[in-house]
Give the backbone structure.
Amino acid sequence: MKKRIMHSETAYVLAMAILSIGTALMERADFGISMVVAPSYLLHLKISETLPWFSFGVAEYCMQTVVLALLIICMRRLKLAYFFAFISAMLSGLMLDAAIAVVALIPFEGTAARLVYYFAGLYIGTLGVGLIFHSYVTPGAYESFVKELAPKYGVELGKFKTAYDMSSLLVGVILSFAFFGFGKFVGIRLGTVFCALVNGTLVAFNSRLVDRYFDFEDALPKLGKFFRTL
């Protein structure tokens, strides 16, 4: 089968949009938010009680800044790429707020619709991660954390992603208890646990899937060379 050509820049834009839509769908389904964004979602819920402008998107790039700081500590060096990771984090936060606003306009009623939203959001999100690893543009903090540290510690990408996801789930549970009382799983439900268990596997599957159908080339080779030397 002849593969199609996809530009690395297109992969980045598509990935950012897809990730935002996937998160917005899961948030609307209310079966439990993705464990990756659960800490920022809980931060948003708590702080927005006092500061209404503190949206999910704003909480996202605030939390990604913390993750970037942890990445710098683990790597024991500061790279220019991490600055671009922060730019990607801010962009993803803005796109997430836009996606939530758009998804809110879609007719929504009943458990069946919630299930469709949940599974569509789950799969779309992992497809976005699979795509973003095929772009030279530095991804946001979550993806950068996995992309940088998995090879550093010699761990297969899917397994490292699963471990990272379970850690995010634990942080989400701790924040839920701290913000809303012990035993209250706000934003974290059975869907969050299921997502944590399958997310890494789905990311690896979708990464192989896009490799099967696409070859990735740079539309802007000089820019691609710049990013790859960071």
Observations:
- The first helix runs from residue 8 to 29.
- The mean pLDDT is 88.
- The first strand starts at residue 4 and ends at 7.
